[in-house]
Input
Amino acid sequence: MTGVARKKQKSGSGGTPATVAATRAGVAFTLHSYEHDPAAASYGEEAAEALGVAPERVFKTLVADVDGALTVAVVPVSGSLDLKALAAAVGGKRAAMADPAVAERTTGYVRGGISPLGQRKALPTVVDSSAERYGTVCVSAGRRGLEIELAPADLVALTGAVTAPIARP
Output
């Protein structure tokens, strides 16, 4: 899907590497901002609630270590990452969650605001196949309190991802 970027945001929220990447690619997207609560237990669930979007359509970005290589997993906030399925999706044997500090340094984003788009270093990416059920999905736009809504096919294309069933309910 190509087209003009559509943005819904508060003034002053500015661009992020994620929104710049989507704009440069000519991908249609909607930007949603909300007031992030630092006391929120789950960044993804907070986003779903604040935006009034079903948690199955809001995806969190997780960074894992698969056989010594950092790999990005994009799964619904309503579920959790199946590490064995992630490893299998990229032809690996073992996966474990990456150290948060390493994930932040490598992606250029802070925890709770890691976007699969516009990362400092391109990493292998797997998007949970459930994303294909929806016309659009929301992922972090690179900052807590900022979500980008786009077509799953555009998310996959922009990240060079593969899709696979990597989420557990």
